[in-house]
C-alpha cells in the first residue's frame, strides 16, 4: 500500500499493530508504532492498549510496566479504563497483586473510575492468594460505590470460602447473590459447590446441586461431572462413578482425559488393573491422548502388584508411541524395579534419564541407592552417593535408615562405614 502510494491512516496502522500483537510479533508492532510517528500520525489510546496487551501476552510484564509508566510520565496519552484494566490484569497474572492494588488506587485518583472488571480482577487475585477477608472488603467497597457485581465477582470468593470450609459464609453469599442481587450462578459457580461437597464427603448434596443446575437450565459440563465421578471414586463407589460416566455419554458430552484418569487411578488403587487398562484403551479408541499423569498412575499400579517387568515393557511401549516420560515416571519405575529385586534393570534405566533430557532429583538418587544397598551392590551405591553429593543432594531419612540397619548387622564392612559417613556429611 505504501509503495503504491495508497493512502494509509492511523486506523490502518492500528489494525496492523493489532495483527502483529495477535501473531506474537510485538517487535513488529513497535516498528509500526515508530513508523506512525515518522508519518506524523498521533496514535490513540486504543493503539497503546493493544501494545500493552501484546507485551503481556508474550510474558513481557516488565516491559509492559515500563511502557505504561512512560505513557503516564510523558503524557503521551490519557489512559482509559481499558488501559488500567489491562495492566492490572497483567500484574495479577504475574503474581504482582500488591502492585496491581497500588495501580488500582492510583486509577481512582487519576479520575478514571474502576468498573466491575477492575474489581473482579483484583478480587480474583486476592482469592487465589487466600486473602478472603481482603476480597470481602473490596466486594463491600464495590457495593458502596454502586458498582454492580456479577457472577465473576462472587465465584472466586465462594471458591476460597469453600477451600477454608467456611460453609455458613458461602450460604450467606449465595443468598445475597441470588436473592438480593438477582445474579444467577453459572456452571463454574455450581461446579465449585459440587467440588466442595464432594471433597467433604457430602455426595448427596453434590448430586442435589447438579439437580438444581438442571432445573435452572444451567447444564453441567464435563468438569462438573468429572468432579462428581471423583467424589464417587474417593468413597469407593465405582458403580456410581461408572453410572455418571454413562450419563455423560447419554447426554452427548464427551469425557476428557481428566475424567478417564480419575477412574483409572481409582481402579489402580483397588488393584483392578484389568479394568484400568480397559479404560486406558477406551481413551485411545475415543481419540483421547493420555497424559504423563495417566501413564504414571498405570505404571505405579503395575509396580504395586509386583509386575515391574510388565511396567517396564509398558514404559518402552508408550515411549515408542511418542509419549515423553517425566522424572516421576522414572522414579515410579525405579522404585518398582528395586522393590522386586531387578536392581540391574533399575541401574540401566537410571543411566537413560539424562539421555531423555531429564535431570535426576534427590528423590531419584535416594530410590536407586536404597535399591543398591538392599541388593548388596555397595560399590554401585558408593558411586551413586558420590554423584548425588556432586549434585548438591543429600540422603533422605529412609536411605540413612537402611544404611544404619546394615551397619548394625555388618559393623566391620569398611564400604558401608564410608557410605554412612558420606551420607551423614
Automatic annotation (TrEMBL):
Protein name (database record): Pentatricopeptide repeat protein
Source organism (scientific name): Heracleum sosnowskyi
One Pfam family linked to the record: PPR_2
Xref: InterPro entries: PPR_P_subfamily, PPR_rpt, TPR-like_helical_dom_sf
Intervals holding PPR repeats: 9-43, 44-79, 80-114, 115-149, 186-220, 221-255, 256-290, 291-325, 326-360, 361-395
Repeat listed as a keyword: yes
Similarity comment: family membership: Belongs to the PPR family. P subfamily.
Keywords carried by this UniProt record: Repeat
Signal peptide as annotated in the record: none
Amino acid at each position: 500500500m505504501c509503495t503504491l502510494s495508497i493512502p494509509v491512516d492511523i486506523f490502518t496502522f492500528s489494525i496492523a499493530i493489532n495483527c502483529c500483537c495477535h501473531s506474537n510479533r510485538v517487535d513488529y508492532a513497535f516498528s509500526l508504532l515508530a513508523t506512525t510517528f515518522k508519518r506524523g500520525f498521533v496514535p490513540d489510546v486504543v493503539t497503546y492498549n493493544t501494545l500493552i496487551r501484546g507485551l503481556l501476552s508474550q510474558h513481557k510484564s516488565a516491559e509492559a510496566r515500563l511502557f505504561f509508566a512512560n505513557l503516564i510520565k510523558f503524557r503521551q496519552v490519557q489512559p482509559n479504563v481499558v488501559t488500567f484494566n489491562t495492566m492490572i490484569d497483567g500484574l495479577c497474572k504475574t503474581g504482582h497483586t500488591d502492585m496491581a492494588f497500588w495501580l488500582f488506587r492510583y486509577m481512582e485518583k487519576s479520575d478514571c473510575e474502576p468498573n466491575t472488571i477492575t474489581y473482579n480482577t483484583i478480587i480474583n487475585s486476592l482469592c487465589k492468594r487466600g486473602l478472603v477477608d481482603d476480597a470481602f472488603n473490596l466486594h463491600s467497597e464495590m457495593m458502596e460505590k454502586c458498582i454492580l457485581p456479577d457472577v465473576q465477582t462472587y465465584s472466586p470468593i465462594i471458591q476460597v470460602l469453600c477451600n477454608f470450609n467456611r460453609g455458613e459464609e458461602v450460604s450467606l453469599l449465595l443468598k445475597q447473590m441470588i436473592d438480593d442481587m438477582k445474579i444467577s450462578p453459572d456452571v463454574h459457580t455450581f461446579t465449585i459447590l459440587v467440588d466442595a461437597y464432594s471433597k467433604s464427603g457430602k455426595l448427596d448434596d453434590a448430586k442435589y446441586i447438579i439437580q438444581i443446575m438442571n432445573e435452572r437450565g444451567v447444564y453441567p459440563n464435563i468438569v462438573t461431572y468429572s468432579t462428581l465421578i471423583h467424589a464417587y471414586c474417593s468413597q469407593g463407589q465405582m458403580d456410581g462413578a461408572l453410572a455418571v460416566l454413562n450419563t455423560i455419554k447419554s447426554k452427548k458430552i464427551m469425557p476428557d482425559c481428566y475424567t478417564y484418569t480419575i477412574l483409572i487411578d481409582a481402579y489402580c488403587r483397588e488393584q483392578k488393573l484389568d479394568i484400568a487398562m480397559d479404560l486406558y484403551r477406551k481413551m485411545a479408541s475415543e481419540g483421547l491422548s493420555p497424559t504423563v499423569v495417566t501413564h504414571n498412575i498405570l505404571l505405579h499400579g503395575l509396580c504395586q502388584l509386583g509386575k515391574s517387568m510388565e511396567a517396564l515393557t509398558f514404559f518402552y511401549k508408550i515411549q515408542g508411541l511418542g509419549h515423553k516420560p517425566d522424572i516421576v515416571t522414572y522414579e515410579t519405575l525405579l522404585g518398582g524395579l528395586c522393590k522386586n529385586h531387578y536392581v540391574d534393570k533399575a541401574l540401566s534405566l537410571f543411566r537413560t534419564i539424562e539421555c531423555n533430557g531429564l535431570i535426576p532429583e534427590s528423590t531419584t538418587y535416594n530410590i536407586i541407592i536404597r535399591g543398591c544397598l538392599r541388593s548388596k551392590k555397595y560399590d554401585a551405591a558408593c558411586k551413586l552417593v558420590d554423584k548425588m553429593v556432586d549434585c548438591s543432594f543429600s540422603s533422605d531419612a529412609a536411605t540413612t535408615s537402611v544404611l544404619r540397619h546394615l551397619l548394625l548387622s555388618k559393623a566391620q564392612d569398611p564400604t558401608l562405614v564410608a557410605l554412612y559417613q558420606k551420607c551423614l556429611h
